[in-house]
Amino acid sequence: QKELEIAKYKNRALLRTIPDLIFIMDKKGVYVDCFTPDSEILLMPPEEFIGKNQREILPKDLSDLFFKIFENVKATGKIEDFEYSLLIKNEIKYFHARVSKLEDNKYLILVHDVSKLKQNEDRLDYIDQLNEVISDVTTVLNIKEIKEVEDRVYYTLDKIGNYLNADRGYIFRFQENGKLMDNLFEWCYQGVEAQMENAKNIECNSFFWWTDEIKNNELICVPLTLDEPQISKSDSRLTLEQDLISLIVAPISFQGEVIGFLGLDFIKTKKEYLEEVKLALNLAAQMLAPFIYEE
């Protein structure tokens, strides 16, 4: 009995060195055992699900998938691999699972957390699609047959705004040697209230942090919180009046002079921006510069 306990202890110690989740379930889907080096990636502590059926623990679609996999493994005798996702502590986690049958009508499920890999793959796909958007915009901006400037500009705002899930896109032009700024163009997602009529002849000094950053050719990229020290009360008033949560703004420069800015507002979502998004918006702003200069 003592030797059995020692062997069991050694096996558990070995299992704890494996960077995976390991579950053992019986043929009815009851959790028999669980081994993991990191309980943070479990839906709940082991003591809360061991002895319970997975139908009591997992979402129905995932539980049904597990039972389907069990049937396939039992019928073929082969190992089955599949991927699934779970919401754990308000974060979507992605897993790769490998199921094999044990001799005593139980199933061994080896699970690997592939969330970081999935995030990297999603990021690459996102960047590829963003590059396609910028390529489309570049093509349209260079079509000579499109005579109207506003057609080019609104196409750009619509294409970029929709892809980045923005609620509002706009272009401002500085006037009176930089003392005033005017909203020349505005695109709004369906159902979003337009602000263009409220954004004419605005005094730049009223939003000095904002305009100083832009005139210094700096990109403004803020998941907005009104207690941020660099945002003045005037700048905060602007965001409150428009119900903004996040925004990103790129300066528009022409022949070495900042003449305005291109911006996107996010009313419902607090955004964190990839470097590629910042570069893409800066590029779009510079491609639009000659057209904005003419206005």
In spatial order, strands of the major sheet run 8-7-6-11-10-9
Question: How many β-strand stretches?
Answer: 11
Biggest β-sheet, characterized? 6 strands, antiparallel
Rg, nearest Å: 28 Å
Gross morphology is elongated
Distance between the termini: 88 Å
Assign a percent range to the helix content.
25-40%
Strand content: 25-35%
Model regions low in confidence, pLDDT < 50 over at least 5 residues: 13-17, 224-241
Look at the helices and sheets and give the structural class: alpha+beta
Helix-strand string? HEEHHEEEHHEEEHEHEEH
Average residue-wise pLDDT:
81
Number of helices: 8
Structure in words:
39% of the residues lie in helices and 27% in strands. It has 295 residues and is α+β, with helices and mostly antiparallel strands. α5 (149-163) packs antiparallel against α8. The longest helix has 27 residues, at 115-141. It is elongated. The protein starts with a helix and ends with a helix.
Keywords, separated by commas or semicolons:
295 residues; alpha+beta; 6-stranded antiparallel sheet; 5-stranded antiparallel sheet; 11 strands; 39% helix
What's the layout of helices and strands?
Elements (H helix, E strand, L loop, with lengths): L1 H14 L5 E6 L4 E5 L18 H4 L2 H17 L3 E9 L2 E11 L4 E8 L1 H27 L7 H15 L4 E8 L4 E9 L13 E2 L4 H8 L4 E4 L9 H9 L4 E9 L2 E10 L8 H20 L1
Antiparallel strand pairs: 1-2, 1-5, 3-4, 4-5, 6-7, 6-11, 7-8, 9-10, 10-11
